[in-house]
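Today's session is about reading a structure prediction critically. Students often jump straight to the picture, but the first step is always the sequence itself: look for stretches that repeat, for charged clusters, for runs of hydrophobic residues. Only then move on to the predicted structure, which in these notes is written as discrete structure tokens rather than atom positions. Here is the chain we will use throughout the hour.
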Amino acid sequence: MSKKQAKTRATSSARQGTRSFHLSHTAGAARMALLLGGCLSVLGLVASPAFAQSAGQAVQVQKSVEISAGSLEQALRAYATSSGVELNLDSALVQGKTSQGLRGTYSVDQGFNELLRGQGLQATQEAGGRYVLSRVAPAAQNASTESAGTLPAVTVSGRVATATSAYAGGQIASGSRVGLLGDKDFMETPFSIVSYTDKYVEDRQAKDITEVIAATDPSVFSNGVTGAWSENYSIRGFSSGTTDVTVGGLVGMAPYYRTTPEMFERIEVLKGPSALLNGMPPGGSVGGTVNLVPKRAGNTPLTRVTTTYMSDSQLGGHLDIGRRFGENQQFGVRFNGLYRDGRGPVDHQKKGSQLASLGLDWRGDRARVSADLYTSEDSVKGVTRGINLAPGVAVPTPPRAESLLNPSWSNVKNKDQGLILRGEFDVTDKVTAYGAFGTSKSNYHYNGAISAQVLNAAGDFRTTIGQLAFDVEKKSSEIGVKGKFKTGSVGHQWALNATHYTDTVKEFGRRSVPGADWTTNIYNPVWGPAADFIAPPTLHNENRLVSYGVADTLSFMEDRMQLTLGVRRQQVLTNSYNVTTGARSAQYDASATSPAAAILFKATDNLSVYANYIQGLSKGQTAPATAANAGELFAPYKTKQKEIGVKFDLGEFAHTVALFEITRPSSYTDPVTNIFSFGGEQRNQGVEWTFFGSPLRGVRLIGGVAYIDPKLTRTTGAVNQGKQATGVPKLQGKVGVEWDVPTVQGLTLTANATAVSKQYISADNSLSISGRAIYDLGARYSTKLSSFPITFRASVNNVTNKAYWGMPLLSSLAMGAPRTFLLSASMDF
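Below is the predicted structure for this chain, in token form.
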């Protein structure tokens, strides 16, 4: 690390990728057994370990604390007061220094150590019990962690040694995983990224991933519907499929259609295509990548129980347990169990979620191993489904916000199971090898309207009842090696990576149930009897994706200039089988090479300028039998992004401004030549400004504004060429704010606002739905109940109960979520 980098890290302690401190000798610990959801074996866990000071000092009791981000002096004085100790502090020592705050359970010494991490200061206890702040001598700063009376450095606050720390305010992490480049600080990443912490997820009371990533990011668009068959969102104007979400970097390991976030400690969003970084996703998403980072046990024991309520009568509970044990706390166990069920705010709609997850990890001097297991179930009765408009019918006025436009007996159920193993080994101090393997299964069942069409201005509409089911088995793996070296004054951070993914998809059902079609009215829907479920086999496909990537980040000018170059080779194989005979009916086998380049210049310690060119890969097609070039195989087609941006970090408040252009090909058959090709194109040009952090003491802000021009630049016969793409708003503005009320300790008021411009629902731009502005309000209160920390949360989403149309599909309509009340209480034991 250069001197300038070291200075940057000293400026803000939350910018250290590894947040560690030295624990004194650990006293004896008891063990406890936990029955994990009936599907996990009984495990021996360490319960309530006592922490002692060095020999000759009294044992210190650990206490739960929550210190807000702000000036270092304010944080130290607040911590001393809450700990009941006297602190002698010379203001000159901390002048101009800031703190990211402190949240967790610590002894007095541990808390001071963590607050002063990277500040060049120490708090020492005098004979009378008073603490005195002083500078750390250089020799002491460089002392070995193996000195007498200490143990090797370990992680606190539930974060593993390689995880990025929280930025000011605790809602956003200071960096994220950037594919094969590994974990990177956001100021040193030549792409637009954001990483949400588990604290933000808890405080949002989020029920799925979309409720996290679409709340405050103006580049992420959500249709706003609730209780749909699947999560649905787009990034930078292109739909991003839930099947392409990664877990710990492995594609295909997340639940297939909806993911409840309780088992994850970070939710990371990388905007734009990412073929070099992650390889081609099975669903071909190119607007951005969502990565979920599983929770790990921290060194502080955790037992947290959360109860939840959502209107109208949905109740739930969440259990989160974390323990580490071993002489150096090298082995960790993290369990999350969840159950929610009951009626939601939409008429006749009932939603349920169940989750049991187990995260195991072991960390040695040079090796680290982890395993994650989960089983989840998500169900909706009274599914939200899209409706279309008959030719000549205008967009109708939305009905009541609580309206359900699908049979009340309609239902969808997703069952998912997954296992992920990961290991890494430091071959040398500068070379690390790693590998990961995951396997998962998904079972899906849907019975209800497949399509619906509004017939007239009065709102009469006819539904076509369909029934679908499928089984998917997925396997995903990656191996790689990364390292550092220098050639003269040029530094190199290189990485080699190979990925392998397979899935088997078997689909069953029928898209039209004979005699089950039903006509009713959107303003007063009345439904007939449920259709019996019959599911004959309809599809059997097997897919394989294999890729090889290499990248090198060259550093110049004392690491202020960083140039990343890389390339990935992608192979795609799909076999289709006759569902009756089992014989192979079709095959797709093609490859593509995708280069990328990015440059980042750190003009100052607080200002970075970057640019990138990167591609996204999506599976090509075979020309249909009706085309003049029938049977021609097309390689995976390439979506291309060009982006420039500026990142500005004020220490506690960060901004990113980015300008981008993304062009994505599309296929069509030319009406004149009858030749099938990927000659179509959509071009999204845009600018986005995002911010996050704590600009004022006790105030936290996340949000931004994005403008996207999604234009059809090449179409079949130039029909609709130059028109705006459907389902994409040109303008979005979002902001989330939290304010710690200074007159009431522990009370925080929250608000969130989303403004979205109109979206077209027809390719010729003749039909559109209006923009909307949605407001959420809330509060939380942290206190103690019989010495146990407890946090109460309450929020109201869509306060005005605005009725509006959303778009679950590019040309269909569905009702956005109505006013929704959320309550929860979390207690640590």
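Discussion point for the tutorial: Helices lie at 3-11, 72-83, 91-94, 108-115, 138-141, 198-204, 210-213, 275-278.
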